[in-house]
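Page header: ASSEMBLY MODEL / two components / 483 residues total.
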Amino acid sequence: MPVVQFFNTLSREIEGFVPRQEGRVAMYVCGSTVYAPPHLGHARMAVVFDMIRKYFEFAGYDVTFVSNFTDVDDKIIARAQEQGIPAAAVAEKNITIWEENMRRLGVALPDIAPKATAHIPEMLEMIRVLIEKEYAYIVDGDVYFRVDAIPSYGRLSGQKLEDLQVGARVLPGEKKKSPFDFVLWKAAKPGEPSWDSPWGAGRPGWHIECSAMGVHYLGMGFDIHGGGSDLIFPHHENEIAQAEACMQSEPFARYWVHNGLVKLDGEKMAKSTGNFVSVSELLQEHTSQAVRLLVAQTHYRKALDFSSSLIAEAETAVERLGLCRDRLVAAGVGMPASAIQETSLYEEVSADEKAMSAFRAAMENDFATPGAVAALFELVKRANTLLEAQDPDLEALAGAARAISEIDRVLGVVPPAKHSEGDTALLPELMQLLLDVREQARAQRDFDLSDLIRDRLDEVGIIVEDTPQGTRWRARRRQTPGL
RNA sequence: GGCGGCGUAGCCGAGUGGCCCAGGCAGAGGUCUGCAAAACCUUUUACGACGGUUCGAUUCCGUCCGCCGCCUCCA
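Prediction written out in full:
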């Protein structure tokens, strides 16, 4: 089994990955607070960890992937009150939208997608222990975690409590003993969803759910904890403090992986400022493959500055991938349709070893998807070159096709073969008819007519190409209007 | 104020102490073609500034300039 190396936020170094249990990866990725539909930032996070997960699977690991939904919090409650519906309904609706968006993005379902509200007992138990061990205190039905009880607090984010205090925004009238203490349990206010607890009715604070669910499903010391880099402080820091204090053992998670954020035309994408693109919006204009390619072309730890021209470029590149796949299928070396929905996929590859080893080397070097993409395009060029030959070497072609397919199981950027889907069964026959007519016109050098046919077909989205091997046609994948 | 990141050819974006290369998009020329498209080939004096280390730095160190993120909810 290969040694995968990647950057561990905890050590700030690239480390060789040694799993807790030979051949297995237990990973937890912070999902979303479902008060609104996901935006591109969520999509990047999901796609990044989807590729990481699929690479581990490709490399032969047995992966357990947990990603949660935060389905109770202030914003959800606020939305519910605005709309005059129950908070649970807001959460439920957005979970459905999330799942639909992820499906369209080719993001595999987590093995477990726990909801916070379904794990209240685990959280209560954790809070109970924390109070008992005096890591937490009760004020008017709220329960707070005492940050200064943890000497190592700040290790993940490189923050020191003293330094933080300099710039801290201390709110007056706080019930907390220290501004960095954080809430484990919030006393219920009228009209809010609440659960019974030994400290009175209330609901959990944000951080406790991930500690409780992480420990519950994966156990202390699981392999990888991931999320957006904006979660490093304080969310992940707090998760660590709670879990390790409660369980009296460490570490909570052994490797921490954080993806960079998405910017929109140079500014941070954030719902609060209205500066964001929703996933639904994006997928209305663009293919999921283009979105995934866009994500894969930038290293996951760097900021990704989104713009309409970038996604348009990605769309063009995806078109190139799709054309190659179509030609391979037409050449009879059939590439299986993109397997981005599959999750179990380790197979010995013998196709184009050079590209495959470049792909592996890239992925095992801190999940360098840009290098993986380069390897993929090298294979496409190779396949296209082979296809140019009068009498293509089918064996070599099959090898290239196979390698492309293998890489794409992880990346999920090659569109499915055309012709095989959608449309009506009659279309190929009608097309043949039109092309036959056009061919006769051309034979008689009636180019006015032949061009008319081609132009009119182009208007309805069908592209006709004359090649040395004969005339072929294809449907245009997607219009790419400027955003 | 504290912590962290980034600055690479027209654009996006990898990478490396010297040797021959990322990759994508765009542009130019060519092959093919009635034309076009696709594909392939070729091509466009890249490494923010200034010092230092070194036989040699875009790559290591320092300073500076510029941009950005986190420190409050946030993927």
